[in-house]
Amino acid sequence: MSRAARWECLVPKRRASLMLLVTVLLWPTTVQARQVRISGLVQDLDGRPIVNGYVQIRAESQILLDRLPIIGGAFRVQFETNRRTVTVQVDAPGFQRRLVLVELNSDTVRLNPIRLRPLPGIRLGALVHHRTPDSLQEVIDVTIENTDARRDSVLTGFRFSATKRRETDCFDLRTPAVVFELPSTLSISEAGVVVRLTVHTNGTRDELSAVNRYTVLPCSQRRLAIAINLDLGVKAGERSKLRLVLPPVLERDGGEQPLHLESWEMVTLEVIEQNGRRTRTSEFRTNQP
Known about the structure:
Elements lengths: L2 H24 L7 E11 L9 E6 L2 E8 L4 E8 L3 E7 L6 E6 L4 E3 L3 E3 L5 E3 L3 E4 L6 E9 L6 E10 L15 E4 L3 E3 L5 E9 L2 E14 L3 E14 L4 E8 L2 E4 L2 E4 L8 E7 L4 E3 L9
Parallel strand pairs: 1-7, 1-8, 13-18, 14-19
Antiparallel strand pairs: 1-4, 2-3, 2-5, 5-6, 9-11, 10-11, 11-18, 12-17, 12-21, 13-15, 15-16, 16-17, 19-20, 21-22
């Protein structure tokens, strides 16, 4: 047999050996899908929990989980994947989007707190609860700031709700820019009751209507919601204080019951801007008796 013929006979065998070698080398790199759990806290730059927002889990362009709610400033997700890394995307109204690359070195991963940076615009501080000097009315104070240094903003609505958590501190400016004062006795109903309230702004006193709604939820839970519509301008870079004065007594179906806001676990204030954007405070936790 000639040398050329011998070479032709050897080539197919070498190709077969190379194919077998490539197959053997690639087989161990295949990763089987497994259940993975990821949990973490979502906070603002001051460390306060962000109570509303969503989490998305994706691997490159593939979305594994979408729009999972952030509850009480925390999230916990579970999914199946064969990827070694995933991206956690966190979105919350009034805050910049945050992307976190997570290495799945174990089946359970607990992330460090994810801090979100606020978008330019209206920002609310933490709620501060106290009583008037005569202890007859309960007061909620909150700082309101327009962090956009170039654009003025107009607020068109205020939403106050209480559902029942610990007291937090915030800046206490000396004079509130706006004070909402409700009547000494507040009528409540599941259907919603229109009440008159007094608004103090820059030394003036006005009367307007508010709608409050009292809802009985399962497991003996209660929810009080008050909606106030009022146009309020906030100049670029301006910071001031907003105050809500609540009555000590709730009236329902002819009976009265004390408010005792300290016993409610969560109190929230939301403001609505003219462009439709909504901004909420972080949750306000009271000291439980």
